[in-house]
Amino acid sequence: MKAMPDFRNIHGLTFDVFGTVVDWRTGVVLEGRRLGEFHGIKADWEQVADAWRGLYVPYMSRVRSGDLPWTNFDRLHRLSLDQVLDDLKIDGFDPAARDEFTQAWERLPAWPDVSAGLAALGKRFTIATLSNGNRSQQQALMRFTGLPFQRLLSAEDFRHYKPDPEVYLGAAAELGLAPRQLMMVAAHKSDLRAAQSVGFRTAFVERPLEKGPSGGADRLPDPESDVQATDFLDLARQVQALDG
């Protein structure tokens, strides 16, 4: 059986944002409906949201491969939105409306357990985002949600996207901690495995509805992680119990 981590040696928690902290799919669908009504455009907004998110990794890969120069999250989303609207043959969004739709990623609802869970965890640890979202996007999102993060760390700070090791190592350096003193919290197992590869401890938090009612999200168990939780409140309870 895997030994449980000694939380006395962990000083910071870094959090994936999209899917782990906020419900991106609901937020994008709601904004699509709002803009669609305003502009008189009918579409399957769930399909739009899923297709848009589906291009998230391919567009980041274009940066990694050198096909695109360093391009931040907002710009990648704006580029991929053009492809989605073209692929789904959705007409009527002019450039200004497309820019506004891209800002949907600044107005995403937090999962119901997040605020209270972060408040509890923040009493014991430094809590920071570690997101592929660019800095201005994260700042706007945190103003919208009011979540009590103490630091906002972005892939833009390191000009690399997760799961590149430079992001996790850069976060550790920014926080003034060794990787072993940090725990990555995410609903995506690939993110956690990448963090582990550079020495982070990890906590898997399940978000079964991240990709909608049809499923597709990573699910419990995740035996490779140090902690497995059903939500942030469960994570806070487990940490409190293990911390003594």
Count of folded domains: 2
The rough form would be described as globular
CATH topology name of the largest domain: Rossmann fold
- Count of strand segments: 6
Round the Cα radius of gyration to an integer and report it: 18 Å
Straight-line distance between termini: 20 Å
- Average pLDDT metric: 96
Order of helices and strands: EHHHHHHEHEHHEHEEH
CATH class of the largest domain: Alpha Beta
Largest sheet: 6 strands, parallel
What is the level-2 CATH architecture name of the largest domain? 3-Layer(aba) Sandwich
The total of helices stands at 11
CATH homologous superfamily identity of the largest domain: HAD superfamily/HAD-like
Q: Give the fraction of residues assigned to helices.
A: 40-55%
Strand content: 5-15%
Low-confidence stretches: none
**Which structural class do the helices and strands define?**
alpha/beta
Adjacency order of strands in the biggest sheet: 3-2-1-4-5-6
Summarize the entry for a quick read.
This protein has about 240 residues and is of the alpha/beta class. It is built from eleven helices and six strands.
Structure commentary:
Strands 3-2-1-4-5-6 form a 6-stranded parallel β-sheet, sandwiched between helices. It has 11 helices and 6 strands. With 244 residues, it is an alpha/beta fold. The model has no long low-confidence stretch (mean pLDDT 96). α10 links the parallel β4 and β5 (201-205). It folds into 2 domains: 7-23 and 109-243, Rossmann fold, CATH 3.40.50.1000; 24-106, Putative phosphatase, domain 2 (DNA polymerase, domain 1). The chain has helices spanning 24-39, 45-54, 56-65, 73-87, 95-102, 114-121, 135-145, 155-158, 165-175, 189-197, 232-243; strands at 12-15, 126-131, 151-154, 182-186, 201-205, 227-229. The radius of gyration is 18 Å and the shape is globular. α1 packs across α2 (45-54).
